[in-house]
Amino acid sequence: MGIEYLEKEQLFRLTTPNTEYVIGITDGIYIGHVYYGKRLGDARCGYLMRTGEHPFTPAQKKREKCSFADTYPWEYSTWGVGDYRESSLNVRTESGYRGCELHYEGYQIIQGKPGLPGLPATFCGEGEQGGGQTLELYAQDPVTGLHVTLRYSVFEDSDALMRSVSCSNRGSQTLYLEKVLSACLDMDCGDWDTLTLHGSWAREHIMDRRELTLGKYLAASARGESGHQVQPFMAVLDRNADQEHGEVYGMHFVYSGNFMAMAEKTQFGALRMVMGINPEGFEWVLEPGADFDAPEVVCVYSDEGLGKMTRTLHDLYRNHLIRSPYLHQKRPILINNWEATYFDFNTEKLLQIAAEAKKRGIEMLVMDDGWFGKRSSDEGSLGDWVVNEEKLPGGLAYLADRLTEMGMKFGIWFEPEMISPDSDLYRKHPEWAVQHPGRELTQSRAQYILDLSRPEVVDYVYESVASILRSANISYVKWDMNRQFTDVGSLYLDGTHQGELFHRYVLGVYRLQERLTAEFPDLLLENCASGGARFDPGMLYYSPQIWCSDDTDAVERLAIQEGTALLYPLSTIGAHVSDCPNHAVGRNTPFQTRGYVALAGTFGYELDITKISPEDQAEVEKQVRLYHRYQPLMREGDYYRLASWKENGTWDCWEVVSKDRSEALVTLIQVLAEPNYHSRRLKIAGLEPDGTYELEGTGQVYSGRLLMYGGLLVERTWGDYTGTLLHFIKR
User: Fold this and answer.
1) Helix 347-359 / helix 395-406 crossing angle, nearest 10 deg
2) Rounded to a whole number, what is the distance in angstroms from the first to the last CA of the chain?
3) Per-residue confidence at 127, pLDDT binned at 50, 70, 90?
4) Positions marked catalytic
5) Are 149 and 76 within 8 A, CB to CB?
6) What is the pLDDT of residues 442-494, one digit of tens each?
7) Which of 174, 183, 387, 468 is disulfide-compatible with 163, CB 3.0–4.6 A?
8) Contact in structure between 38 and 308 (CB atoms under 8 Å)
């Protein structure tokens, strides 16, 4: 495992425990893609680039260089020199000429993995299996003086491949980067589908699979955030691939702003897959001597279906991306007052909720929106981060001290990136809002966006949050972001640099959260953006969990959490038990079922516990016991998807298996009851075939082979929206 250069064959081989990625050099200057898939163990694979076929290479047949450029399997595609497929790099000169051709210059193999300045990225883990290597391929455009580094990293304990790109202007004139993607993959295309995650507010991350035909399939965001509408992920997979069978190639972007992912089936039946910063609205001015670093893309190949891709990503993010001290800790069970009170609360009401919650085993109170400025609705005061002592007499310190005396932790909500038109901050600094001079600013949720490309705004936002955290015993922060970009412009940047605003804004968010986690290393930070609008790997670098969706209905959450868990560990998925009728859809579901669904996430409550029935309060106590019993397994175990309600229309099922295969927890949710059917045959996954397992509470013992290959018969329950837990323990 690792990286090697085969000088005779002019090939670079990058191997992981089960996969291999091969890069070749053609005519001594062109960097081409040879192979990505199961390990070959054979250096004689350069012929896969087809350079011995028509149109041949420029060294063999210069007159057909254009055809060569349009068919060669490039490692990194550029625009303007004959490749008419989707480009990865577009460059404009001072004179207005567009075009770039990269020539190979050399390479370096580095032990470990360098970070990316100002950007989140994966890192080498701990222990003997946590190491890694990085390949840097150096290329230049001899006309413009642009130098490009193509960077590839592998880890000893992962089948993922990490890619990123850096550009450096070593010429004498300014260059304009109009497009800088982070990864390009050229290979033959079979009978494949694309898989993406789409949605909207309150229905994020819904899996969308469709046939890959000739032409381009695009998934993208130009909203200034990764977005509710589409996840920064794309996979191509065999037409018949399922959870445990078939080939899958996945790409996931470690970035929290505008992105594009594209799969293109070409005129010759080949595939090009690209991912990176969305070029719409983007331009980066690269002065002589300056550098630009593009964010990281995670690539995963699986020959065992979507399930293996999922488990590869889960382990990668747990071992090599999330830095929080809470990563491997049981997180406190919280109760949030938002759906309980909205803006109508005071210290007395919060303490009443906390006291009742404490009796039931809940460990933290989180105070949501409405505690600052003159905030009695969402019409104003964002930016005025001063405690409203009419609601909270004695301030946060008094409330925090009362909670501490009660044995409860205290958490708080912020929306630091926004500013209300009706705020003291906006009246003092209207120039701090993102705006297009001459246009009326567009409001969304009665707010504008703070211009985080301005250093003084970043400093103001940070001190606003940090001063609150310094003032009281606060253990948790929910960092929210509730609108997309409009009127994209900055009064700080000059006209030449306006195209940099989107990216500079995201870099500002990263600077803020880097400072926050550095000053408050024990803080439990949960990111949020109107639910899941910024649920991406970039934010996981700063927070171990992200609020998944503002829709907490247990049935809606089945599809939302299925899509989210396709990519992210369950421990990262913010999930709460809320009241019924549900505030988003008005549906009534059993309290027990709501708990089972939230257990496949961070687990907490979003309700007024003083107003629910005694029966539901007793159920809270049962759910708290379930959480303490199963949360280590849910946090650390391997995830398997056994059935999908979105596919079959009636039931949903998932499973988590411990790493040592000593236990497994299966959750089955019957969404719709059906008359006159036999029991379901449920094939349990991931067990030790030769092991013996007891189904807890029944005294029944089964072999691992019987459970996996023969299956377990599970009786159907009576009624809609019912749930069943099955806990298997190895004997």
Assistant:
1) 20
2) 35
3) low
4) 480, 550
5) no
6) 999 999 999 999 999 999 999 999 999 999 999 999 999 999 999 999 999 99
7) 183
8) no
Q: What percent of the residues of the chain are helix, what percent strand, and what percent coil, each to the nearest 5? A: 25, 35, 45
Q: Which residue has the tokens 């329950």?
A: 717
Q: Is 685 helix (H, G, I), strand (E, B) or coil?
A: coil
Q: Each residue of 245-303: pLDDT tens digit?
A: 999 999 999 999 999 999 999 999 999 999 999 999 999 999 999 999 999 999 999 99
Rounded Cα distance, 347 and 403, in Å: 11
Per the listing, tokens 């070409």 go with: 266
Paired tokens of 56 = 């041949």
Burial letters 211-247, b for 16+ CB under 10 A, else e: ebeeeebbbbbbbbbbbbbbbbbbbbbbeebebbebb
Check: CB of residue 695 under 8 Å from CB of residue 726: yes
Q: What is the DSSP string of 91-120?
A: EEETTS-B----EEEEEEEEES----TTS-
The helix/strand/coil state of 630 is: helix
DSSP 532-587: BTT-SHHHHTT-SEEE--S---HHHHHHHHHHHHTTS-GGGEE--EE-SS-TTT--
Give every CB contact of residue 136 below 8 A, 6+ residues apart in sequence: 107, 108, 109, 110, 149, 150, 151
- Per-residue pLDDT band for 42 (boundaries 50, 70, 90) equals confident
| H or E, element range at 274 | strand 270-276
pTM here is: 0.97
Match 């024990």 to its residue by tokens: 522
Residue 518: what are its φ and ψ, rounded to 5°? Answer: -75, -45
Tokens representing 608 are 């007024």
CB 433 within 8 A of CB 426: yes
Asked whether the bond before 455 is cis by omega within 30 degrees of 0, the reply is no
Q: At what angle do helices 395-406 and 455-471 cross, to 10 degrees?
A: 50
Is the N-terminal amide bond of 55 cis, ω within 30° of 0?
Answer: yes
Is the separation of the CB atoms in 92 and 178 below 8 Å? yes
Tally DSSP H helices, then E strands, for the chain.
14, 39
Cis peptide before 581 (omega within 30 of 0): yes
Other CB atoms within 10 A of residue 466 CB: 15
Looking at residues 41-61, what average pLDDT do you find? Answer: 91
Residues 6+ apart with CB under 8 A from 554: 582, 589, 593, 594, 596, 597, 598, 669, 721
Token duo for residue 504: 């500079």
- List Cα–Cα distances, 349 to 13, 343, 363, 477, 578, in angstroms: 63, 12, 17, 20, 18
> How many whole angstroms separate alpha carbon 655 and alpha carbon 693?
15
Q: Report residue 262: phi and psi, to 5°.
A: -140, 140
Which residues make beta-bridge pairs with 655?
A: 640, 666
Q: How far apart are CA 386 and CA 704, in angstroms?
A: 59
